[in-house]
Amino acid sequence: MADRDSIVITPLAERPSLLPRIYEIAETWPAFIPHDPVGEALLGRVAEDFPHYCVVATDGERVVARGLSVPFNADLDGREEMPDKGWDQILVWAFRDQRHGHTPTRASALEITVDTEYLGRGLSYRMLAALRDAVGRQGHTTLLAPVRPTAKHLEPRVAMGDYLHRQGADGFPTDPWLRVHVKAGGSIQRIAPASMTVSGSLAQWRQWTGLPFDTDGDIDVPGALVPVRCDTARDQAVYVEPNVWIKHTVRPPTEPPTD
């Protein structure tokens, strides 16, 4: 087992040689998630285009976690800081603003992924703190996050609003990832009802999930936070994932990072 003190977390801008390696991590994302078209088009560019907003954790020469966030302008006409389309919308706005030279007014996390071998060691808390520090160094006072509750997939038929009300005896959310965010000082703001959308043919969904997809209606899929809607006549199934908007207050760092 790795020593906690052997793990070093740094902004990607300070270790550009690690850019090609941040996806070497052993992950547990469901097979259908990478087929969100917005993510397919843009997520792979985030670390290279916004390295000051991204962090990487290493244990010796091994990359063991990554944290990605992006800046965007929430003040332009038709925008808001926590849109219904959550994750997808933030990605689109971030790259549109970069292309048109719009000054960022907010920062939003996109993901924190920890190598499966390093789960349960408190690294997610450290990565979240590192992301807050990273956006603070860029002048932001808040970090937003369209959070994907990690245990919600166990109860896909439970409404997200009801799920959010579940708390332990200590008053913190029972969901592990929501709990991390709230214990770290984040506040739950609202649901992003259509944060990510994956649409595909029934053959594609069979390949991604190993399920038959031969009946109409809602189908429970391992890893999905809500059921996937299947339409056999149209040879199509659609997954619209809700996330939870959380806001963190960011204190500008008083000194440069040392790790």
Mind explaining what this structure looks like?
The protein is α+β, with helices and mostly antiparallel strands and 259 residues long. It has one domain (4-193, 243-249): Gcn5-related N-acetyltransferase (GNAT) (Aminopeptidase, 3-Layer(aba) Sandwich). It is 24% helix and 27% strand. The protein is built from 7 helices and 9 strands. The strands form 2 sheets. Strands 5, 6, 7, 8 and 9 form a 5-stranded antiparallel sheet that branches. Strands 1-2-3-4 form a 4-stranded antiparallel sheet. It starts with 6 loop residues before the first strand and ends in a 10-residue tail after the last strand.
User: Can you tell me the CATH architecture?
Assistant: 3-Layer(aba) Sandwich
Inertia-based shape: globular
Mean pLDDT: 95
Low-confidence stretches: none
Oligomer: single chain
**Beta-strand content bin:** 25-35%
Task: State the major sheet.
Answer: 5 strands, antiparallel
Domain module tally:
1
User: Into which percent range does the helicity of residues fall?
Assistant: 10-25%
What Rg do the Cα atoms give? 18 Å
The CATH homologous superfamily corresponds to: Gcn5-related N-acetyltransferase (GNAT)
The number of distinct helices, counting runs of at least 4 residues, comes to 7
